[in-house]
Structure formats: structure tokens, C-alpha cells
Amino acid sequence: MSLFPSDDPIIENHAVLEPDNNSYTPSNLPEREDELAEINRILRPLQTGGSPHNALVYGPTGQGKTVAVELKMQELRTWADNKGEDVTIVIARCKGCDSSYHVLTLLVKRLREIKEGRGVERPQGYPRKALIEMVFNEIDRLGGIVVLVLDEIDGIGEDDYALYELSRPDISNAKIGVIGITNDAQFRNNLDADVQSSLGQREIFFHPYDANQLQDILARRAGRGLVDTSFNGAERTFENLESNVLDDATIPLTAARASNETGDARQAIRLLRDACEIAEEREELVREGHVKEAHRKIEKEAHRELIESETTQRKLALAGVIKHEITGNPNPGTTDIYQTYCAFSKEIDGRQVSQRTVRAKLNDLAHQNILTQSRRGRGQGRGMSNFYSLSIDPELAIEALGDDQRLEGVAEILWDLGK
Ligand SMILES: Nc1ncnc2c1ncn2[C@@H]1O[C@H](COP(=O)(O)OP(=O)(O)OP(=O)(O)O)[C@@H](O)[C@H]1O
Asked: What separation in Å is there between the alpha carbon of 269 and the centre of ligand 1?
């Protein structure tokens, strides 16, 4: 096999087809004009010498929240340069910060790095009050306009001390604004009422994209990223896209698949990229079949990751359902599954939990969409019971179980039963 699949590549700019913001940032977001205008409104007080409003930006994953805020921050930098204003924008990705303490140490680090360069250590061992003072001191030292963008802030859960303090800064030397970004609607509802009223002065909601919007987003990526693909006319919409490497149905199917699930632009872009890569390897036009194949591959990976992250007890409960499924009892009740669970638990010399606990584990798996749960009567006069079936491919589920060393033996038994 040669190093590169074809002398006639389909993808000419890989960065444009990357689903995350790291390698390529679109320069405009026509689907988000309303939301961008709302971000403008947050910044508007700066025009007359005031401080920006605080805001909470929220909506499901992959809806362009981060990229929209980043674009507006770039515009703010340009505006400030033209006006001769000092502006500092700190975009802090708070993923992994599970408390206000961690958010504050991250902010101290990021603010100090502005003057001292990269590599500043996070402060350790200080109380939260001292950390917030450090943050305010750094901001005071910087002066001018300071905007703190706290992306993926939901990790802090109900520990919203940092947001409370940051949204009420006591600084005379700087105009400070805080923008929190989250894809967790519940996070917003759980915030303390004071934080809701200060941070949530402005709330900007990003609705999920529909299939037409996703088609246009994909068309723009294709226009920049694929060979022999460009727009016929000034408007860069799907209708105006002309391509010698994409079949007509490819983008509509990609957009439809992504919009059916969550309307997630990141997922749509990834699907298009993977489909193009498969077609490129086979030296074919990118067709519906490649999109379907790429979709299956993505789904498989997602299910695998989901199962891998489950606890051993849940995996054993799942093994119980799989056994029934592959031996011709596709909709077992809790009692049947519990018996199988006990046998598998013995197999690995594991701790055995009660039937009630196993039922709870099965319900958790149903919430994760790994199982489907139904509730029906067990027969005349015998009350109602829960029944479970597998919502994912059994082979994939066994493979994922076998990746857990403790469950290798259980996976082998299941493979043998399925033969
Ligand atoms: N309207 C759009 N036009 C072009 N690309 C877009 C658009 N919306 C989102 N994207 C792209 O989709 C990907 C995800 O966007 P982004 O990270 O901004 O989403 P998000 O809403 O912040 O997601 P999350 O909540 O998961 O962090 C990025 O590659 C981004 O460039």
C-alpha cells in the first residue's frame, strides 16, 4: 500500500475540514447573525466609555457558540486598535475545571502569562478569596478593557463562587466584562439567583441548526476544502455549490443525518470529512454510500467510548442483556438478566449486588441509550415489570466489554454463544 491513497486527492485543504476550531476558524457565520448581533449589544457600552455587559451564552453542543464569541472578540480587538484603547481578551477553556477554585487558578495563570509569557504555574494552596484578589490585581495592573471568556464553564456545577465574584468586580482601573459559555441548560438553572442576575444580565441562546443551515455550513467547507468545488455566484449557499468530486446527494444526506441527531455542526463537518477520506482512498466520487459508512464508523466509536467509560457493575449488567439477545431472548426482564448477571459476576470473582441495584444499573444504561427499556405486564395478576433490549450492535458491545481486562473472560463466553 502506498503512503498516500491517490495521486488525485479530493481534499485540498485538510484544516478546513477539521471539525474543531483549532485548525480553522470561519470568518463569517451567516446562520448566526441574530446571535452575533446580541453579542454586539453586550459590547456596546464600550462605545460610550462604559463597561461591557456580562453574559451567558448557552445552547447544545456544536452550535457555533465558541466560534461566534471568538469572532466578536477579534472584531473588538480591531475596534480597540483603531480607537487606541487597551484591550485584553482572555479566552479560558474551563474543561476539566470542576470547581471555582480551579477556574480561578486558571485565570490567574492566564492573566499573568499576558505580561510574563507562557509557562506560568497555577497558584497552589491559596484560599478562594486570595485567588479572586489575585485575579482582580492582575486585571487592575492591565487596565483598559478586559473581557474574560469562560468557555465550558459548566464543570463547576453549583460551585458558582467564582462567577459570583467575577461578575461584581471591584476594580477602578479597568472595564471588565465576563462571558460564560455552556452547553448545559441545567447549569444555568442551577446557578444562584444572584449569579443569574449578574452574569445572566444578557442570555444568548443558540438554537440547534436545521438541515438547510447545515447544508450551507457544509457547502462553505466543501468550497474551501475540496478540489474542483466552488460557488457559482456571490452567495455561498448549498444551492450555488458546484463540485466535480461530490455527488449531488452527499451534502443533503450528511446534513440530514446530523440534523436528525442534534443539529451539531461539528458532527456534520466530521461526517463530511470522513466520507471524503473514505472516497479518496477508493478513488471514487464522494457519494451517499460513503456518508453512510462514515456515519456507522462514527456511531461505532461513540458507542464504544460510552461502554468503555461504564463501571464494571454496569458492564456486567449489560453482559446479561447481551447474552439474552444473542441466545434468542431479545427482550428479557430484570429477573432473567439478574440471574445472568450473577453468573458473570461469579465468573470474574466479583462482588455481587442486589437485584434492585442491577435494575438501577440497567436503567442507567437505558438513559445512556445503550439499552431500550419498556414496561409491561408479566401476565394476568402478576403486575408490571421492566424489560430491556440492546439499542446498539451486539458485536460492538462485546468488543467494548472485552477491552476491559477484567471482563475478557465474559466477552469470550459471549463470543462463543454468538457463534
Ligand atoms: N455557522 C457556522 N458556520 C461555519 N462553521 C460553523 C458554524 N457553526 C459552527 N461551526 C463549526 O462547528 C464546529 C463547532 O463549533 P463551536 O465549537 O463554536 O460549537 P459550540 O457551540 O461552542 O460547541 P460546544 O458546546 O460543544 O463547545 C467548529 O468547527 C465551528 O467552526
From this structure: 10
What percentage of the chain's residues is helix, strand, coil (to nearest 5)?
55, 15, 30
Nearest to 74 by CA among 14, 15, 147: 147
Dist. CA 257–CA 249, nearest whole Å: 12
Residue 213: count of CB within 10 angstroms of its CB: 21
Residue type, 188: R
Closest C-alpha to ligand 1, atom 4: 217
Assign a CATH topology to domain 51-205. Answer: Rossmann fold (3.40.50)
What is the distance between the alpha carbons of residues 364 and 383, in angstroms, rounded to a whole number? Answer: 23
Phi and psi at 189, nearest 5°, equal -65, -30
| pLDDT tens digits, one per residue of 303-353 | 888 898 889 999 999 999 999 999 988 889 999 999 999 999 999 988 899
How far, in Å, CA of 34 to CA of 133, rounded? 36
CA distance 409 to 30: 54
Residue 279 Cβ inside 6 Å of ligand 1? The answer reads: no
User: What is the rounded CA–CA span in Å between residue 364 and residue 317?
Assistant: 10
Report ipTM (2 d.p.). Answer: 0.99
Q: How far is the CA of 26 from the centre of ligand 1 (A)?
A: 9
Q: How many residues does the chain have?
A: 419
Domain ranges of the chain: 51-205, 209-306, 310-418
Q: Can you name the CATH fold of 310-418?
A: Arc Repressor Mutant, subunit A (1.10.10)
Between strands 241-243 and 371-377, the pairing is unpaired
Class of domain 209-306: mainly alpha
The position carrying cell 468586580 is 169
Cα of 136 from ligand 1 centre, angstroms: 31
pLDDT tens for each residue of 124-156 = 999 999 999 999 999 999 999 999 999 999 988
Say what the pTM is. 0.83
